[in-house]
Design goal:
alpha+beta; 2 domains; Alpha-Beta Plaits; 4-stranded antiparallel sheet; single chain; globular; 4 strands; 9% strand
């Protein structure tokens, strides 16, 4: 049986959800961002208990098809930007369509309708958060960050960064309080 879980966006999230499932006597067969497959069927009571426990930790069980699709889109983008060094071989629309086996226009319209923002804006927000993270670590130059995140140039990265944050990457790097958003807050 598959369960879909909103806001499950990192490795620690997977560990926490796995722990909650095991405490309820459920055995996860596979776990990935936003999706868990368990061995057995889940009773209504178990599902209600799990939903309450997950909710107390900032997660949410998803039942409807639209919400599942939105969460899959978000998780694919988060995984692509934050965990795969943005190894995008085709364009984003082609990537999402092939991963979800759905027409991109339908995905885009659904995402915009439900989230109030476009897939592209969400993707850019994720990339900018990754840039902030890399700038804070101070291990890579701006040109290395631009290359790693598939920007065509440092100038393009800098312009997009300033448009989203209001700061240049260099100025941001100099700020003492580098306020970053958690992935699930985007």
């Amino acid at each position: 049986m598959k369960l879909y879980i909103k806001n499950m966006v990192c490795g620690r999230c997977i560990m926490v959800v796995k722990s909650k499932l095991e405490k309820l006597g459920l055995n996860p067969l596979s776990m990935q961002l936003g999706e868990v497959e368990i061995k057995e069927s889940i009773t209504k009571t178990q599902k209600e208990i799990l939903a309450k426990q997950l909710h107390s930790l900032g997660f949410e069980l998803i039942d409807d098809k639209k919400s599942k699709t939105i969460e899959k889109i978000k998780n694919l983008i988060v995984e692509l930007v934050h965990y795969k060094n943005n190894e995008l071989q085709t364009n984003l629309s082609g990537y999402l369509s092939s991963q979800l086996l759905q027409d991109y226009n339908a995905l885009s319209n659904l995402f915009s309708e439900v989230e109030g923002t476009t897939i592209e804006q969400y993707f850019i927000a994720q990339k900018i958060e990754k840039v902030k993270e890399l700038l804070m670590y101070n291990e890579l130059s701006l040109s290395e960050i631009a290359f790693q995140l598939n920007y065509s140039s440092v100038a393009y990265l800098s312009n997009q960064f300033k448009k989203v944050t209001g700061f240049t990457p260099t100025y941001f790097k100099q700020l003492k309080d580098k306020k970053r958003k958690q992935i699930e807050a985007l």
